[in-house]
Amino acid sequence: PRRMVVVKAAEAINPDIRKTEDKVVDSVVVTELAKPLTAYCRCWRSGTFPLCDGSHVKHNKATGDNVGPLLLKKQ
Ligand code: FES
Fold it and tell me: What is the reported pTM?
C-alpha cells in the first residue's frame, strides 16, 4: 500500500508579536561567549538548530512572516 503524505501549506509562526517590523531580532549581551556573535534559531526551521542557519529568510518569504534569530553578542 502507498503511504499518504500530507503537506501543510506554509503558515506564519508569529501570530501578533511586533508585526510592524520586517524581521523580529533580539540581542542579549553576555560576557562569557567563545565567539563574538552566536545566532539562535527562533523559527524552528534551521538545519543546525538550535543555531540559526538563515532558513528564516526562506520561511519569511514563503509565509509573509517576520521571524528572526536571537543574537548573543560577546562584549
Ligand atoms: Fe531560524 Fe534563522 S534559521 S531564526
Answer: 0.73
